[in-house]
Amino acid sequence: MDWDKLVQLLVNGVTLGSVYALVALGFSMVYGILKLLNLAHGDVLMVGAFIGWGVLGWLGGAQDPSVAVWLLIVLMVLAAMVGCGFLGVVIERFAYRPLRRAPRIAPLISALGVSFFIQNSVLLLFGADFRSYDSFDLVDVEVGISWGPLNVWILRVVVFASASAMMIALWLLVTRTKLGKAMRATSFDREAAAMMGIDVDRVIVKTFFIGSALAGAAGVLVGLVFGSINHFMGFNYGLKGFTAAVVGGIGSIPGAMFGGLFIGLAEAFSVGYIDDLTRGRLGSAFSDLIVFLILVAFMLVRPQGIFGKPEVKKV
Amino acid sequence: MSEQTPEQPRIGRDEWVASADERRAKSIVGQAQNALDRTPAALKLVALALPFAVFPLVVESEYLLQVGIDTLIYVLLALGLNVAVGWVGLLDLGFVAFFGLGAYLYAAAASEYAGRQWDATLAIPAIAVTVAAIGFLVGLPSRRLVGDYLAIVTLFFLQIWLVVLINASFTRGPNGISDIYPLEFFGRRVTSQQGYFYVALVAFIVVISVLYLMNRSRTGRAWRALREDELAAELMTMPVNRLKLMAFAVGAGVAGVAGVLFAPQQGAVFPANFDIVLLITIYAMVVLGGPGSLVGVTVGAVLINVSLEVLRDPDDASSLFYAVVFLAVVLLLRRPWWSSLAVLGGTVVFGLVVHEIAEQARPSLVQGTPFGEARIDEVVDSWVLLPADIVSPDGLPTGWLGRVAYIGLVAAILGLTLVRSRLWRSVALVPTLYLVACVWENLLLPQPAVARFVLIGAMLVALMAVRPQGLFGAQRVEAV
User: Fold this and answer.
1) A positions 267-296 inside 8 Å of B (CB)
2) Which run of H or of E encompasses B184?
3) pLDDT per position as a tens digit, B361-373
């Protein structure tokens, strides 16, 4: 048994998983409140990654940043969160709100259009090249935590820590504040919530802002740890984020966190071991197949996910 | 007493439907729609197929014939997608994977690589059934669930399909399979473009007839009932899950047939033929034409494929683009009659003023030459802002003006939808139209491939908000 590899894969999996969890949270919140699959969510993440890249370039680039590195990272994440938050609000206002009373499939097709539009707008404005964050220049790869066989680059720690902090903050927001209560009520029964004096439209707008801001933060974190970004990256993160949300249980916050980590670890380990296990017949690119099989297995055995409650149809 | 008849309850006639029918009978569009509804199906089929049938007789060029064959394949794909999306209301995001499956299965049945040649009379039904069966299996995991789960599973299935195609050795990865034999009917090979065109046309007639009969059958009625209200359909003892899976499989089978025609006609298949871009294009065709309407879906596919072809050539693209913008303005501002003239005139004046100011203040802003060589581009050259060097040698836009104008344009269009007052909307339309021209000349025209996709994405969103029933579809409401 190669312990170093195992530990390294574990670290990879947790990093990847925290990103997936952030995506899954935003996706899950929107689904919980609108029962709408926000197919454009992955592209919001991509826009966040580009905003972070823009801020990085504006503040001098990775080689020669004009502010302290920690401040730079905070600024990048904040700018992406605010930018994506507003992007999410705009998407909701113009692509989804006019379709509140339309047949179920209409907002889904609209979401498909939004996703395609955002992707190709970025392609139009910035071209198809991969853009690099040059994170190794920003933070040396030697800087990190080492403990026994564990060697973790500090940026990975930052990703995990900030993702966890955001999830805890969100958890507190949803369970402890008035807005959270309104969100839960709206998600439970929109009409009844409206009758109780909750401004449902405002709650939905705020939900979109928060969910998209999380995706924007996730985009910057992806850029920091995995280095390069391009206009099509949102597809992969969106897809894995959706899968994580389904596995964890759509609409459940701990479910999204757990599902994200689960999918991240599953992907990292299948990337690491699929080659050995199949004696070289399937390369690491087939890790997606493993994640897909997990999704299918959950669909068959436990469609409500790990933390979800089975949906009861109301007539 | 005759006066009492209106008081009687109109059994079986929904109030909303009745009022919608009344409104429809008043408008010109509605009357045309009613006339279309009354036309017998056989006549419609002839009307749809006849232009196609004479097309190869009047067209000489190989290129146009190729466009014709592509169009027919797109029509088949749109018809197949319509089964799941239009009739049953399921979001099938893995649809192009079934198209790819059909194409690759044909490559496995008849190519030098596979070392055998199946007769098309055997290959087409066998592959259609196989692909339909695979579609059935893909839909199976989400059988108990709402359409949203199906969307995720099918989207992921498409991703897996692409991963396998690109990475597996037996599909030859990104190089694709390039020595596919032509179709063979009873030992006779189809060799000419005309031949393929007519094979595709026959496939179209067969598929649309089968789908029409299916839609009129018990199953078709059950599908529509299920789309309107799943729970009610289930209470009427309809086997909801089986019906959904069936629709899904039928759509996949049609895509498989399209794939079987595509592979030998191209002579080669590549993973890049079956990506998400194709998926969205087919969605745009179905949505534009009108989900649920066979005529609509066919017309939508033809319209979109032909306009995409026109957009390939920068000169034609410009003429088409400005014509569509002009028409849109005239149609949007019908009342009072002079308002569209005022807006268009205002735009011209506005542009001339902006151009003059820019020329005085910063001459570099207007020194560029238009990318296209059409007459219209030369005319607008003295009107829009065109900085020098809008395009770098490798074809990427370099100018900041185009980018700023693009973001401004998106904001302006979104803002316009919020303006309620007709007067202010017309006033705000003037600078917006000018921005449209600037963005077109600076950003979209130099990158036609991307511009098509941006326009398709925007069209999907706009259609859903303005006319979700498309050109020919029937208007629907969500039953509460």
Assistant:
1) 283, 285-286, 288-289, 291-292, 295-296
2) strand B184-185
3) 877 777 777 776 7
What Cα–Cα distance (Å) separates residue B134 from each residue in A34, A199, B110, B254? 32, 46, 20, 13
CA dist., res. A252 & res. B296, Å (int): 41
Domain spans of chain A? 15-246
Long-range contacts (CB closer than 8 Å, 24 or more residues apart) made by A283-288: A283/B167, A285/B163, A285/B166, A285/B167, A286/B163, A286/B164, A286/B167, A288/B159, A288/B160, A288/B163
Question: Which residues are CB-neighbours of A124 under 8 A, at least 6 positions away?
Answer: B397, B406, B443, B444, B447, B450, B451, B454
Q: Nearest residue on chain A to B396, judged by CA atoms?
A: A127
Find the residue in A nearest to B465 (Cα).
A98
Residues from chain B that touch A90, judged by Cβ atoms under 8 A, are 414
Contact A292 B157 (CB under 8 A): yes
Q: pLDDT tens, B153-178?
A: 888 889 999 888 888 878 788 888 88
Task: Give CA–CA dist B18/B315, Å, rounded.
Answer: 48
- pTM attached to this predicted model: 0.90
What distance in Å separates the CA atoms of residue A133 and residue B74, rounded to the nearest whole number?
A: 40
**Is A188 near chain B, with CB under 8 Å?**
no
Taking the Cβ of residue B30 and every Cβ of chain A, the question of whether any pair is shorter than 8 Å is answered with: no
CA distance B219 to B309: 37
**Cβ–Cβ of A104/B396 closer than 8 Å?**
no
**Chain B residues close to A102, C-beta within 8 Å:** 464, 468, 478
Q: How far apart are CA A224 and CA A237, in angstroms?
A: 15
Residue in A closest to B85 by C-alpha: A105
B473: which DSSP letter?
P
Cβ neighbours of B291 in A, within 8 Å: 105
* Contact residues, chain B, for A285 at CB < 8 Å: 163, 166-167
For chain B, give every domain's residue range: 40-311, 316-446
Residue of B nearest to A240 (CA): B156
Instruction: Check: CB of residue A117 under 8 Å from CB of residue B457.
Output: yes
Chain A residue closest to B447 (CA)?
Answer: A124
Residue A263, sorted as left (phi over 0), alpha (psi -120 to 50) or beta, turns out to be alpha
A113 contacts on B by Cβ (under 8 Å)? 280, 456-461, 464
ipTM above 0.95, yes or no: no
CB–CB contact B145 A292 (8 Å): no
Pick B457's closest partner by Cβ from A105, A116, A315: A116
Q: Report, as an integer, the average pLDDT of A270-289.
A: 80
Name the residue in chain A with its Cα closest to that of B288: A109
B417–chain A Cβ distance below 8 A for any pair:
yes
Q: Is B157 on the interface with A (CB under 8 A)?
A: yes
B449: CB partners within 8 A, 6+ apart:
none
Write down the pLDDT at residue B4. 46
Q: Quote the Cα angle for A36-B295-B40, to 5°.
A: 130
Contacts of B269 (CB under 8 A, 6+ apart): B100, B103, B104, B107, B176, B177, B178, B180, B262, B263
For the segment B293-352, what is each residue's pLDDT rounded down to a tens digit?
A: 888 899 999 999 998 888 887 778 888 888 888 888 888 777 777 888 888 888 888 888
Could you give the C-alpha distances from A149 to A11, B109, B298, in angstroms and in order? Answer: 12, 53, 63
- C-beta neighbour count of A157 within 10 angstroms: 16
Nearest in space to B435 (alpha carbons), one of B419, B416, B453, B421? B416
User: B283 and chain A: CB distance < 8 Å anywhere?
Assistant: yes
Tokens of B91: 């979001």
The pLDDT confidence band at residue B142, using thresholds 50, 70 and 90, is low
Burial of B115 (0-12, 13-18, 19+ CB in 10 A): exposed
- Output the six-digit token pair for B127: 């592959």
